[in-house]
Each structure stands twice: as structure tokens, then as C-alpha cells.
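Appendix B. One record, verbatim.
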Amino acid sequence: MDSILDPAPLYYEIMNSFLVSVGKNAPKKYKEIKDLTLRVQEHVNANRGDLDANKHYALFKLCIETKNTKLVESVLTTIEKLVSFGFLDGNCPDFVQEITLEENKAQQAEARSRAASSHGTPTHGGKRLLIDSVVENITTCLQNDESLQLNIVKTLLAIFECPRCEIHDRTLQEIFRAFYHVQIVGKTALIQNVSHAALNNLVTVVFQRLEEYTNPVGAAENKASKKLALQQSTILATISDEQTPRQTIASFLTSGVNTSRSTGETIPVESYCSDVLLNMVDSVCLYDAKVNHLQEKATEVSELEKEKILEQINEVPLRNVPENSSQLGKYLLTPNLTVVNENGATAGRFGWCMCCRKSADLYCKDSRWPVCSLECKKRILMSLELMETEQRLPNGERHGKNRYFSDAVSIFKSLCKYSAKDPPVPLGPNSTYVVRSKILCLELIFTILENPGRTFLSKRDFIEIIKEQLCDGLLKNCLNVDRSIFALSFGIFTNLVIYFREHLKQAVYVFFDQIFLKILESGNSGYHQRLLSLQVFHKLFQRPRQVLEFFINYDCDVSYTNITERSLQNLSKIAQGKYSRSEFANFIHANEEQVLRTLALETLVQMVKSLSNYSEDNLSLIHISEPTRLLSISYAVFCLKKKSDHEGSVVDELKRLLDGLFPLLMVLLP
């Protein structure tokens, strides 16, 4: 009981166990690790009330860089424990980016430079946190060692599930890719099961947060539960705020680095506005420097040349980037000066990069901001896209909640992208990994679509991803030879029809016309493909509203063929024993034919029964299309009147189509 009230002994036990392991396993050539270990040991023993492990993370990073298996395993185990008990959360500025082993400094100088620029538009409102480096360092440990992979998955999962750790955007993607990689390349059932469970948990939590933070009731519940979790972890992490304040990092690690928690978070719009203001200051400084340079030059030349220089002064542009291409000549004629910014970087042709503050000799034509590279241009455009996403949220949901929205969008987009990947042609040694990757992504997409929330169903971003990426991939996967792939694809399509059919009229038609009906009509389709196609009809046709919508939107529209009529004809033929003929003997056995016949008959029976019940409840079937119909129904009903020789109603046309089914059902039903 005392150990629960006083977390200090637990903290000392975890840290001392780690320090002993470092002293035992660290190679002797790494003198900086030995020295730092002694300093950390002295600090832990001397400051009995300080339970903040964030300030000691530099030692963890150096140990990871040694790539010593035993040392890395010790680091991962210790980080998992510290995160689980709330002693390490990484919720402070990142102070370890420049800390590295002496032997790696030359090789990693350029890598650190790229990392610094890549985080110019970051995950936490313009600030890179220590947790970003923690995740980044852990993911560099991915190897073929199964035990190491298992530790990586467990540690990253502990970080993701910790309520004190802010995991968003790029850092979330790194965790997702790590789980994904381990699941695909894992060779044992244990590592595959653990990584698969971790991926499922990550996707589930991301979409739960999406709904909770965009639903007022769910948001209130989530805040309460998160507050409770934070209070519980605070009890384990600190005795009290007065006893263990978050302060500047100890001088024995690095000087002048602040590990204090930020009192507020900068949202992307605020960060972007700050960058725009800084760019405006750059423009003023560069303009002033160029004008002063020309004015000084004018005092040293003749009157004739002085007039030319004064004309040049009038041509000096106010902005450091041209507003349009016609103004580019002014910038090329303007002299370049040796002007440095706050980081000591010399101004380029267009000043300094808006993303990383390096010399900018290029500019982005889309945003009209100076950049130093293509990578920085992409970062700026991504920041603009993030702000547009934020602005689409209601005012009360913008601050903070856009992070969960963008997290869900990025994860869903990645899953759709990976699910559409094709195996190499001809099939290479990695083809099994591609198939496994497809199955994994399709399973996760199916999980998301099986029970989607209100936000997921209503946001345009998800609808566009489904239309532009998911549907194209499903068309290919529905024809895949792997049974698991086409089975999952059929299930995903069924959910798309149930929840998103009003946005996918053309796509739904293509799937029915080119996939499901073709499979039922083909002479060489396999049993499992036919069975899954019939299951799609069985699930969709038990909803009378969907049957009517299919009929009105396709059979009654002159621009489409009669999908409902073709479906009923195929179902009736199968129920009468179409597949018992000799031409199907090589593909369908007798017992399989009986299963297909029974399923087709059940589908017809439940469809007619549900339509009959629906018509009794709603007086006349045509009335369902009046107040709540799809946008395309008005046009479809108009086309129906043009298509029919008489002024019959939709119900008359549908009844005419169903009239031929009743004699069949009377014969087939017991």
C-alpha cells in the first residue's frame, strides 16, 4: 500500500535497474555513455523527490544508437515501464535532436538537418516534443530479431495508449508503420498476433477519438475519463507539483534546455500566422537592406549613373517572392546581399525558407512562399491543407479537435493506399508480403466500416478518399485469386452500399454490373465467388428501402441498365437449379449447388416479404421517395415516365417485375 502512495521507490528501482544494465552491457569504447551513466546515477540518488525521467532521455537515445541488442532491449523495457507508470511522457520540448554518439556525428549531420526541416511544420502546433524523438528513435531499432520486434511493439503500444503522451500526425504514422512492418515481416505466430492486435487497437482508438472529440456528449465523457486517467498517472508519477516541479534540464545533460511543459498548445493556424508574420519581417528587412545598399552606391558614382541607380531603387520589390510570374524579372535583376537571419543563415534569392529558415533560392508557386527544397514545399502545402481541414470543422470543435480528425484521415488514407498495392509482375519473392499486406489493410478497413460513427459518415474528407482511392482498389481486389482478399473486398463493398450509396451511385452500378452479376452469369467462376456474390444480394435485399432505391436509381434511369431486373432474374434462375446443369459440373459440386440454390431462394423470399411489409406500413411504396429520397430520385422518376409507355407509378413497374416471382416461390417453397 505504501508503494502505491509513494511512487519514489518504484521509480528508483526502474532507473537503477536500467543503469546497472547499461554499466554491464555498454561497450567500453563508448566513453560518453559511461560518463553520462554516472551523472544520471548521481542525480537520481541526490534528488530523491524528482521523478521526472524525461530529462534523462539523452542516455536512452545514446544506448539505442549503439545498436547493441542487449542494451536496446534494456532501453525498450525501461521506457515501457516508465511510460506505463507516468514517469516519462515526452510532453516537453525536444532537447535530444543534436545529441548523438561521437562516431555518428559526421554521418548524421545531414540527417539531423533534414529532420529539423521536416519538423518545421509539425505535429504539435509548430513545436517538436520529446515524445517525437522517443518514437523516432525506437522505430530505428526495427530488425529481424523477433524478441526485439516484440519489445518494440509493446513499447510503442504503451506510448500510444498513455493518456499523458500526445501522439499525432507524423509520430502517429511512424507508430502505425512500425506495427504494420512487424506484422508483415513477422515469421512466428506470436509476433504476428501481437502486432495485429496492436494495429487493431491503434485504428480503433484513433476512430473512437474522432467521434468523441467531434460529438459534444462524447467529448464531455472523454474529457472526464482522460482527466481521471491523468490524475491516476500523476499520483504514480509525482508526489505533488510543489515537490517535483518541471524545470530546466540539469546541467550535467545539456545546458540551457528547458523541459517545462507548455501551458498551451499552438494550433496550426496560429503557427502558420506566426510564420507569415516572420516572412513579412523578412521582406521588410531585405527591402530595407537592398535600398540602403543602392543608396550608398549612388553616393559614389556620377550623376548619370546615379539616375540609373535611383530607377533601380524604384524597381526593388516590396515582397521577397513575386506575386505572379511576370514580376520574376525584377527579382533576378535585384542584387543579392549578405544578410543573415536569427540562425546565421545567409539570405538567398528569395530570402529565407518559410519552413526551416535556411537560404531560399526557390519559391512555391502555389503558396507564394520562399522555400529551400521540394521537401519544404511539401511541408508548407501540408500545413495549408491541415488548416483547411481545421476550418471545415465547426467553430467549437476547431481548437485541438482537428488533430484527431487529421489523425483519422491520415490513417484511413494510408490503409486505402496500401490495400490497392498490386503484387510485382512477374510474382517475385516478396509477393507473399504484398498479399499479407492487402489482407491486413482490408481487415482494418472492414473493421472501420462495420460500425462507422456519425463524424466518419458525414465528413467530406472520408467520402472523397472512398471515392478516389478505396473504390478503385476494391474493383481490383474483388477479382483477386486469393479467397481472403476477395471475401474481405465483398464485405467492405456491402458496407459501402449500406452507408455511402448516396455518394457512390456510379461506383455501385459498376460493381453490380461488372463484378457481382458477371460472377453469377459466368460459366467459369468458382463456388466461393458465387457464394460471396449471393451473400451480398442476401444482405442488401433484406432492406426494402435499398431495393427500391436500386430500382428507382438504375432501372428507372435511362442512362443505366436494369440492375434490379437482372439481379432478380439471376436469383430466380439459380433458385430453379441453374448451377445443376452439366456446364457447371467442373466448378460446382452437387452439395455446393444446393447451398447456392437455397441462398438464392432465401434472398428472394426475404425480399418479397420485406417489400410486402414495407408497403403495408407506408400505404404505397412510391411515398418513400418523397421526403427522404436520394438526390437522384427526382430525375429517375422523371426518366421512368419517359421510359414507360403508360403513366404508371414506380410501384406498378416494380410489381410487374415481381409478378413472375410468385409462381416460382409457390413451387419452390415447402
